[in-house]
From TrEMBL:
Keywords: Heme, Iron, Metal-binding
SUPFAM superfamilies: Cytochrome c
Gene3D superfamilies: Cytochrome c-like domain (1.10.760.10)
Limits of the Cytochrome c domain: 36-127
Native source species: Pelagerythrobacter marinus
Protein's UniProt name: C-type cytochrome
PROSITE patterns registered for this protein in UniProt: CYTC, PROKAR_LIPOPROTEIN
Superkingdom of this protein's organism: Bacteria
Length: 129
């Protein structure tokens, strides 16, 4: 039975490597970022007003509900149900969602690509604390 489990385990890993949408990401944080970058990300999120539409742990106010909660973002599947969940894709999405995901209802945000990477670092880092 153990051998069978291993075979299925390998098959699942291969499926994830091929980018199958059905693959759930592991619950643990898969990326680690510099604390300074994450701090910058938090400031960008506050300045850009992301919380007007999102509940974001660590950002107390205003906890908007127009967009999905970003709590536990690290552990969810595809970004906005569409893009593979990687830091580069997340940075692209938070800066210009309609370009990253055609038809997305989240507006493009006035942040630089450097700031978008910091935002991605913050969002992936939420579960680390
Ligand atoms: C005007 C409201 C609004 C603002 C402001 C906004 N968002 Fe969004 N956001 C949305 C909506 C609506 C969605 C769902 C879009 C979709 O599914 O295509 C979304 C989706 C997302 C997602 C994907 C969530 C998931 O579960 O996959 C992330 C990440 C995200 N937003 C981050 C941000 C960040 C970071 C900012 C600030 C730079 C921001 N948003 C600003 C409305 C907003």
């Amino acid at each position: 039975m153990k051998a069978v489990g291993q075979i299925f385990g390998h098959a699942a890993a291969l499926g994830c490597a091929l980018g199958l949408a059905a693959c759930k990401q592991p619950p643990a944080s898969r990326y680690t970022f510099d604390a300074g970058l994450r701090d910058m990300g938090r400031h960008v999120i506050e300045r850009a007003g992301c919380a007007a539409c999102h509940e974001i742990p660590g950002i107390d106010w205003p906890e908007g509900r127009t967009g999905p909660s970003l709590a536990g973002f690290d552990g969810v599947g595809p970004i906005a149900g569409y893009l593979p969940n990687t830091p580069a894709n997340l940075a692209r999405f938070v800066r210009n969602a309609p370009a990253a995901k055609p038809g997305s209802t989240m507006p493009a945000m006035p942040i630089s690509s450097e700031e978008a990477h910091a935002v991605a670092a913050y969002l992936y880092g939420i579960d680390d604390d």
